[in-house]
UniProtKB/TrEMBL annotation:
It comes from Sphingobium xenophagum. Residues 1-20 form the signal peptide. This is Opacity protein. Keywords: Signal.
Amino acid sequence: MKTLLLTAVAAASFVPAAMAQDQAGSPSRIEPYVGVMGGVHNFDSETGKEGIPPVGYKGRMVEGVAGVNYNVAGPLVVGVEGSASKGVSGDIDWEYGAAGRVGVKAGKDSLIFGKVGYKWVNFDALGPDSPDFHGTTYGAGVELSAADMGGSAASSNIRFRVQADTLGNFRSIRPMAGVVAKF
């Protein structure tokens, strides 16, 4: 299941890139992007409907994201994003998921966004053949462009991203920070 999901996300990220090349010369309404982030994921010690084990698991994560934004009109942006995370310390082995995003452009090229999706989590602490736990994920964040942080360029393809997500019925907190590059 993990391989199928990651393959689908990777394949989907190449289609918009090809479409964006057809629009060379006009302002692109389609913006594919990739990014790398790091952070922590802390789970509550209470059992919820999501079936997360009631132990209070936590771990440090490294995450790769790939997605596509579509500039609807004016500052409004909608998009989809896939993610895969690897636990580097703590109780979490892997996380992977997909989400829809809605955002508003701010400044020259920055973005304030909210997202809703679905995430699967595998806990290293439960052993090598443990099941994946899953649930709806919610989050919000901001991507700050170098052009808006004092740069002299009119726009920038590199953004510094900070976000916070939760899984299920607010049973966890997952702050992340990293770099996203649009192309």
